[in-house]
Amino acid sequence: MAMKRQHLSARVHCILQIGYFKAVKLFFNVAWSAVDYDDLQFILQQYFSEQLFQQNEITKYEYYAQYKIISTFFSYRMWCKDVHSVLYKHAVSVIQRDTKPQFIALELLSYLNEQKIIRPKYTTLQTIVSAIINEERKRLTTILQESLTHEEKSALQELLVDEGSLSKLAGIKQDARNFKARMISRERDKWTTLKPLYQIIQRLLSILKLSQQNIQYYSDLAEYYTVYDLRKKIKTEQSHLYLLCYVWKRYQEINDNLITAFGFHFNQFEDSIKKKAKIQFSEQIVGQYNESLTMKQLAQFWVDDSLPDDIQFGAVREKVFSIISREELKNKIYSSKKKSPHKADFYWQAVDCIGRKLSIHLRPLVMILDFSSTTQNNPWLAAIEWMKNIFAQNKSLAQQPITECPEGTLPAKQEVYLSGIENPLLINAKRYEFWVYRQLFNQWKTGHIFLKDSLLYRSLNQELVSLSEKDELIKALKIPAFDKSIVKQLDALLEELKSLWECFNKSLKKGDLLHLRYDEKDKTLHIQKINLAKEEKLKHQLYGQLPLRDITDVFRFVHKSSNFFSAFTHIQPRYAKLPVNEEYLIGTIIAQAMNSGNFNMAAISDIPYATLQDTLQSRLRLSTLKAACDLITEDIAKMPIFHLYSFDPLLLYGGVDGQKLEVETSTLRARHSKKYFRKGKGLVAYTLLSNHIPLQTELIGANEHESYFAFDIWYNNTSTVSPDVVTGDMHLINRANFALMHWFGGKLYPRFTDIDMQCKHLYAGEERPEHKKYKIQPIGIIDRKLIEKEWPNLQRIIATLELKETTQSTLIKKLCTYKQDHQTRKALFEFDKLIRSIHTLKCLLDPSIQRNTHRSQNRVEAYHQLRGAIAQAYGKKQLIGRTNGALEISNQCGRLVACAIIHYNSAILSKLYEKYQAEGNVKAIELLKKISPVAWRHIHFQGHFVFSNINVIDLEQIIQKLILDSKPENIEKWMEIKQSKISEVCA
What we know:
This protein is α/β, with parallel strands linked by helices. Among the domains are: 2-73, no CATH class; 81-145; 370-458, no CATH class; 546-636 and 884-969, no CATH class; 639-879, no CATH class. 60% of the residues lie in helices and 6% in strands. Strands 8, 9, 10, 11, 12, 13 and 14 form a 7-stranded mixed β-sheet that branches. Strands 1-2 form a two-stranded antiparallel ribbon. A two-stranded antiparallel ribbon has the order 3-4. Helix 27 crosses helix 40 (884-919) and helix 30 (622-637) packs parallel to helix 40.
C-alpha cells in the first residue's frame, strides 16, 4: 500500500500547484480510472490544508483548467464530436452481438475506458444507444421488406391465423410430452409446417447478420407475445422478424426431438429383440439337453445284457415307445437332418415380429429427416434414399430384387437372413428395413451420420472452430492452456508425475501413509481409517431459538441487503424503467418454487391470478432469475462468516451433484426411473455448490451422464464466487474432464470409492526399470508424441469451449462417446490420463484431499435436503410446468428461495461472528464454524400470504437474544443434558 501511494504521489505532484480536490473528485466521477479514490484523497490531503478543501466555489475558468490538466496528465481525451462518431461506429458492431440496451451501454462504457476517453453525460449516451437501436430496427425492417416475397409473407401470416381453437403458432409452441406415435406424429406435422419457413431464414441469415444471442432474444419475444399481439398490435416486419427467429430455433429443436425419438424407439426394439432371442435360444439349449438325455435312455437298449439277442424287434420298439411317443421320435429324427439353428436365427425371427412397429415408429422419422455423413458416398444414406423413393411410389420392399439393394448394404454373412424366405431372389422387407435402421443408429452414435440443422446432433466439425479462425482466436483469448507451448507444459507435467511416483513408492514402502493399507497377499491397496480428533457436532439448536418467520419476510430482508429484485427487468426494453411490484414478484417466485402454481397462489393470497401470470411472463426468465441469484450470492460472499466455511485458505472448493425431481407434466426430456420416480417421470437438477451457496443449477435428463455437464456448469458460472476445485462422486469422471479442467485453470477432485480400482488408471511419463520394483506399478505410458502432434487440433477444442457458441456438454458428450478412430480424440484422452494420474497420486499421498472432497459433497447433500423441502412444501417433490422452459423456471425459482434462506441464516451467523470476534471469544467462534447456514426449521413455508402486511425483520433484536442463549457454557450445558437423555434412552 505504501509503495502504491508513493508512486501515485509522484504522478499527481505536477498538478498540485493549481489543483483542487473537488475538481479531482469530479474528474474521477466522469472518467473511469484504475486509480483508487482513497489513495488519491490520501495523497492530496498531504499537500492541501483543510481550509483549502472547504473553499466554497471554484470559478468556471479554474474548473475547466484543472479538468483539462488532469485529463492530459492521465492521458484521457476530452469528449468531442469526433469521439461521438467513433463511438457510434463501435456501437454498430456491438449491436450485432446483442441488441439489449443494457449490453450496448456497458460495452460503450468499456470501450471509452479502454480508449481513455472521458465518458459523456447520461443523456448523450442514452441518445447514442437509442439511435443505434432505431437504426438497427430500420435496417432489419428494410431487409425484410425487400427480401421477403409476397408468398413468404403470406406463409408467415398463416402461422397467426386461427384454425378452430388454436393457431398454427400456438400448436407449434406446445412441447411433446412423450414418444408415443400420436405425439411424434404431431411433431412431424410441426416439422413439415416449419421447413419452408426455415429455408427462408436460412437464406436471409447472411443478410440480416444476426448473432445467436439476438436470434434467441427475438425468439423469446415471439414466445412472450400472444398470437393476437403479433397479428394486430406489432408492426408487420417486426412480427415477421420475431417469427423467423422463432422458426430458426424451433425447427432445430423439433429435429432434435425427432432424432431423439428415433433413438428411444430403436433402443426399445433392440432390447426386446435381444431379450426374446435370448429366451428362445435358452429354450433350444434346454430342449437339446433333454433330447440328449432321451437318446441316452434309448441307447441303453443296445448295451442291456438282460435282453437276449434273439428278442423280437417289436418288443424292443414297444419299450422305446414307452419312453418317447412314435410321433415325437419321428419329429426328432426328421429335425436332426436339418441344420441346428444358431443364435442369429432367433435374433432375426424376433425381428419378424416387430415389422408393424417399424412402420409406425421408425419409418416416418427416417423418411423426413435430412441426414448427412462425414464420409462421401455413405452406403447407408444411399439405402435410405432408395427406400424413400420406393415408399413414395407406394411400393413395398418385398417386391424388390435383392440385386437392387445399394452397394455395401448387404454383407455376405447377412445375405441368408436378409433375402426372402420363399423367394431368395427378393428382399426380406422387414429384416432389411430393420437392418438399415440398425446401421443408421450405429453410424449416428459414432458420429459418422449427423443432422446439419440441429442443436444437439450436428457433426463434431460443425461444433469446432475452423482451422483458419483458430490462430486469431488464440491470440485474443486469455486461457491458461495457451500461456505456454505444449512442449513446456508437458515437460513440467511429466516431471511432476515422475516425482510423485517416486515419493509415493518411498512413502508406501516406509509405511508413512497411515491412511492406506497395502495387502501383500492380494497386491491391492485399501483406505485405512485414521483416528482423527473427534469434531464436536453442534446441532441446529441455534435455529430452534429463532422466531418463526414467513418466507415473504425473509425475501424482503434479503432484498434490502442485496437488492436482488432489481434483476427482474421487464422483457420489453420500453418498460425497463417501470419498477417491479415486490409483492407480486415474491408471490410468483414462491408459487413456482414450491410447486403450488399461480392458480393456487391466487387462492391463498391477496394477489389476483392474472397479475401473477403477467409477472411470470414478463419478469421471470432464466436470465433474470440467474442474475437475482448472483446478486444474493455476491452479498453472502461479502459477509464475515463466508471465509470460515473454506476448507483450504488457498483453494475454494465447489461440489456438483444431481438431485432427482419428478415433473408434474411429462416432456421429452423427462425420463422414467423406478428408483426415484416409480411410475412417473422426472429430471435431474444438477447443482454447483460452494461454501453452502448454490452458484449454478441446470436441468438434465435422468438418462444423461452427469460428467458431461460438470465442466459446463463450472465454466458457465456467472457469479463472482468462482471455485478453484470441483468435487463430485464417481459420476464426475469421463475421459476428458480432467484435461479440460486443467486447461481452463480448474481442478477436478472426484470422491474415490475404490482406491484399488483407481490404481488401474495410473500411468507414467516414460518406461523406467525401477517401475517393476514398485508395489503399485503404472499400467501404461503416456503417448507424449501424439499429444504434441495433435496440439493444434486440441487448441480448436479449447477455443470452441471458450467461445461458448455451443453447449459445452454437447461437445464433451461427442468427444467422450464417439467411437471414431480419431487421432485428436486419442490425444485428448492421453492428456486426460496424465492429469488424472497426477491427481490420483496426490490424493494417495495427501489424506486431506479426500477428506475435503468428502466434506464438500456432504454440503451438496445438505443443500438437496433444503431444496427438497422447498419443492414439496405443497405436496410432491416435483417441478411444475408444461414445457421445458417452464420447468427450468420452476427449478431456478427453487434455487432462488434456497439462496434467500441461506442469505438470511448467513446474516445471523455473521452478526454473531462479529460479536464474538469483538469480544475475543475464540471458543464461540470455533463452535460457530460448525453451524451450517442450510437450515429451514425457523422458516414458515405455508400459510395465507398477505403481502400488504409487511413484518420487518429486526436482526439486532434476534442477535441480542442469541447472545444470551448461545454462550459457549450454555451450549456445552445443553449438549451434556442432551447426551445424558440419549444415554438414558439407550439404557
